[in-house]
Amino acid sequence: MTTRILSGIRPTGHIHLGNYLGAICSWVDMLNTIDECFFCIVDQHALTTAEDSKDLRKNTLTIAAAYIASGIDPVKNHIFIQSHVPYHTELAWYFNCITPMGWLSRMTQFKDKANKNKDHTMTGLFVYPALMAADILAYKATHVPVGEDQKQHVELTRDIAHAFNNYVDKQIFPLPEPIIKKETARIMSLRDGLKKMSKSDPSDYSRIHLLDDNETIALKIRKAKTDAEPISNLVSDLESRPEAKNLLNLYAIFTQNSMEKVLEEFEGKLFSEIKSKLSDATINHMEPIRLQMIKLLNDESTLIQHLKKGANAANSLVEPHMQEIRHSLNLLLCL
Ligand code: AQP
Hints:
Blueprint: E1 4-9, H1 17-30, E2 36-41, H2 43-46, H3 56-69, E3 78-81, H4 87-96, H5 101-105, H6 108-116, H7 123-137, E4 143-145, H8 151-168, E5 177-179, H9 214-223, H10 242-255, H11 259-266, H12 271-297, H13 300-328
Parallel strand pairs: 1-2, 2-3, 4-5
Helix pairs in contact: 3-12, 4-7, 7-8, 9-12, 10-11, 10-12
The protein binds adenosine-5'-tetraphosphate.
């Protein structure tokens, strides 16, 4: 069976280190082991939170630049915009018709986001996971690399695939596997080690943006919340120190060391020293990506050509799948 990845990012707010490490880096790691890779910029999902739609065009191009600058070759792989492939919303409708409301009500992201805006919770936010299932299953994707927060949605996608296959009594969809890399599964906020780093956090100091310059990165790390204790050499001691754990974990990722090695290096040291070394390691890793993103964003027409090529490939793959799906639903086909 052909192995195929489908994953994406919502073009909302500022793309940050959590999106980069939790999603994009695990995509890059898998490029050589998977037959076909499709990376989407899920602009229609951005519409589920109305405040995000005003900068949609700019954010869409920034995400495309981030994918390419991080190492996804747009010629060998397919980078495209969700709204350029209308089959996603068609398939989402079919899924809405076979997905119990109880399944969608259990989604923790829906509960969190709906709670923040109780008087203005729109239907789109509620059915978002059915559209995400369509994003993945339209391609018959076999693997979905995501951060930990999206695991529940990928599990729901498997349930929807299974329910649809049963409904039409045919194995149309494979059950896609979520791929979640332990060390980068959940990058935490720099202001609160119990909250994930997130685009919607009101504080810019909670996250490092991919377009932050070196001084801003250093400042955000200097201002990151910590505690007063020096570091011990026991990994288990970090369980009660979420902010320390997050910073040390970032250092371990950027220096490609184990947490044990990092604790050995910093045992007895104060946070001023740790933060200074973390700043250097982060800047070292992120600066070439930022510079490449800026270069790509300055050549918008080339970026748009890549996105058109990606949309053509996506539409060509999905079109016959949709015919099979419509046929399985007994829709009258006149083509
Ligand atoms: N903090 C994180 N750590 C690891 N992975 C993360 N991801 C997001 N935050 C972290 C992963 O990034 C991918 C794209 O996410 P998204 O933009 O589609 O939606 P999200 O998960 O809701 O991301 P944000 O940044 O938190 O946005 P808002 O604040 O708008 O909700 C996914 O694979 C996600 O797991």
